[in-house]
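Quick one: structure for this chain?
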Amino acid sequence: MSINNSVEIHISNPPTDLISNIEFHPTNNNYLLASSWDGHLYIYDINSKKQIKAKYNYHSSILDCCFQDGIRVASGGLDGNLNLIDINQNSENVIGNHNAPIKCVEYCPAIGVFATGSWDTYVKLWDPRFQESNDINKDNSLAQMSKVYSLAVCDYKIIVGTSERKVNVWDLRMKRIEQSRDSVLKFQTRQIKTFPDKKGFVLSSIEGRVAVEYLDSNPEIQKNKYAFKCHRIKDDVSSIEKVYPVNAIAFHKQYGTFATGGSDGFVYIWDAYNKKRLCNFHRYPNQITSLAFSPDDNFLAISSSHLHNFSESDTHSDMVDKEGDYYSDRIDRIFVREVSEKETKPK
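Got it. Here's what it folds into:
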């Protein structure tokens, strides 16, 4: 089922290069955080006329960002630094670093630390209360044995996806691996997100597949895990199916359904428990790089961006939307779409 009649807006003054991540403010639908390869961190006030509220320059591409709370945000990128901004005080501090680019940044409210995953093969934990000295963080490294590609927080645990298709579940209180498993997907992990009920997680890869997995190691529970194909387009003439990476996942907190975004430019919403696709939206002008539901679940933010590490054959041709606006596959845009119960509630 395709849905095309929902209210959708374009964010003005979008990033000028690949949009690596977007995230809503934890309690306010109006504020949206975005990081970009253009070296800037953006904060948008969606309902204001200008929309862009603040812009921070780091002179190095930013690969991920997140909110700590309503006034503090963190980001990490190619320079290996973990940056913390206090929006109210307009202050910026480097509170941690890696020996290689930081790919993932997540805040763990259960223990009050940031977790960063890097291409240096480590996850590190950082206490934001100690901004002047990292002495508290001397023993903060969790070795992963290969590059970290994705990281998700689940209460006192983090789930780490690495370049060797490993999925490591760490207990942050004990700083030990609770589980280590191979991804059921055969190719490179793209993203991991946990279910709102904390019972499992969804993992995507570059092969146009998504896996639904459960944390409980009980064999009866593990029987429920499965994987499915998505973000594939069959050519009407040649009948050849083109496979696209699944770059983004976002969960609807109330219903437990989730959205996926792929390099095909499409966004789908899925009911994992009933193994159904609920809907898909229109095709966006570029590859989907990030998705985020608003705190009240009524809106979905979508970044449509050009991925540098894919060939030109992975982008679709220039498009014109129904209002006649022209889009180029080199333009980076952020859309905010109002989503309905019909699109997100399990049937």
